[in-house]
Amino acid sequence: MSVTVRVPAKVNVQLAVGAARPDGFHDLANVFLAVGLYDEVTVTPAEELRITCAGPDADQVPLDRTNLAARAAIALAGRRGIEPHVHIHIAKDIPVAGGMAGGSADGAGALLACDTLWGTGASRSELLALCAELGSDVPFSLVGGAALGVGRGEQLTALETGGTFHWVFAMAGRGLSTPAVFREFDRLAQGREIPEPVASAELLAALAKGDADALAAAVSNDLQPAALSLFPELADTLEAGRGAGALAALVSGSGPTTAFLARDAEAAEKVAAALRASGTCRAVRLAAGPVAGATVL
Ligand SMILES: C[C@@](CO)(OP(=O)(O)O)[C@H](O)COP(=O)(O)OP(=O)(O)OC[C@H]1O[C@@H](n2ccc(N)nc2=O)[C@H](O)[C@@H]1O
Ligand SMILES: Nc1ncnc2c1ncn2[C@@H]1O[C@H](COP(=O)(O)OP(=O)(O)O)[C@@H](O)[C@H]1O
């Protein structure tokens, strides 16, 4: 018997970053939107814990116990006093180290899949607490939709959305390390007063209305200058998307994936074609959101 869970990627439509905390994390106002690009995590009983991964970026995914999916299985089994003896297979379509929470998706997916396979019957709040232990973005991968994350991003409030938003994502030729981007944020912020991170009222209203133009006017990412500082060529990708009529162009989370908001599916196709022709990125994908979080298939 196997259990397969499908988990979406995310884009941060607002990422407001506060000053570094004593524990090294940063307080955030992190507005997540789940988009229709998915990893699938399948768990099957096995002699011992084993991980395999397939997909375009599979060679960049660690297959040992540092994999977030393995950590999720170990954490849940530990709570129940059982051995995490499963084969975890990840069918990976979310870019690795791309700022789209691919590893987090696999962590949330493995947790839900193992809970289902083992019949451990964890409550939603127990699953969310385990997710938060695995990483700041992992709780959102479980819940999906649209949500505001505060604290280090793990304390979620679901957000209303009044429609579907159409996005184009440009994958970069290499990854960016999330801790390195936060460190660069700190370096660039030296000597400057960092305001408390707060969610934008205009942005939340735009999401609630399903108004793409208003959302485009309100999106922001405080990590974008840091990502551009470490990966200056991303400016060319952003410019190519803007030139093709994207309503908004921004770095997704810590990057280096760039995200382009389009008015509708047709406009998204035009932006995608222009990005492909620009030669400024490795691959281009279209995805709409919000979509549901981790789902047992
Ligand atoms: C930046 C964001 C935006 O959604 O995502 P990505 O762009 O990486 O996908 C997240 O905050 C990433 O969340 P996640 O990838 O789960 O990070 P974690 O494993 O919790 O932390 C990795 C490292 O990132 C930094 N970090 C993360 C979250 C946070 N609020 N403050 C931080 O300073 C810390 O250096 C930490 O050691
Ligand atoms: N299941 C996983 N999938 C991808 N990366 C993983 C996974 N587990 C651990 N990692 C590690 O996490 C790093 C960040 O990956 P990822 O979550 O894809 O990016 P991001 O944090 O930018 O959204 C990778 O470089 C990899 O070393």
From TrEMBL:
Keyword Nucleotide-binding found: yes
Reactions catalysed according to its record: 4-CDP-2-C-methyl-D-erythritol + ATP = 4-CDP-2-C-methyl-D-erythritol 2-phosphate + ADP + H(+)
Domain GHMP kinase N-terminal residue range list: 67-145
Pathway note: Isoprenoid biosynthesis; isopentenyl diphosphate biosynthesis via DXP pathway; isopentenyl diphosphate from 1-deoxy-D-xylulose 5-phosphate: step 3/6
Principal EC category: transferase
Catalytic activity, EC: 2.7.1.148
Active site residues per record: 10, 137
Domain GHMP kinase C-terminal, first and last residues per copy: 203-279
Functional description taken from the UniProt entry: Catalyzes the phosphorylation of the position 2 hydroxy group of 4-diphosphocytidyl-2C-methyl-D-erythritol.
HAMAP family membership: IspE (MF_00061)
PANTHER family (UniProt xref): 4-DIPHOSPHOCYTIDYL-2-C-METHYL-D-ERYTHRITOL KINASE, CHLOROPLASTIC
Name of this protein: 4-diphosphocytidyl-2-C-methyl-D-erythritol kinase
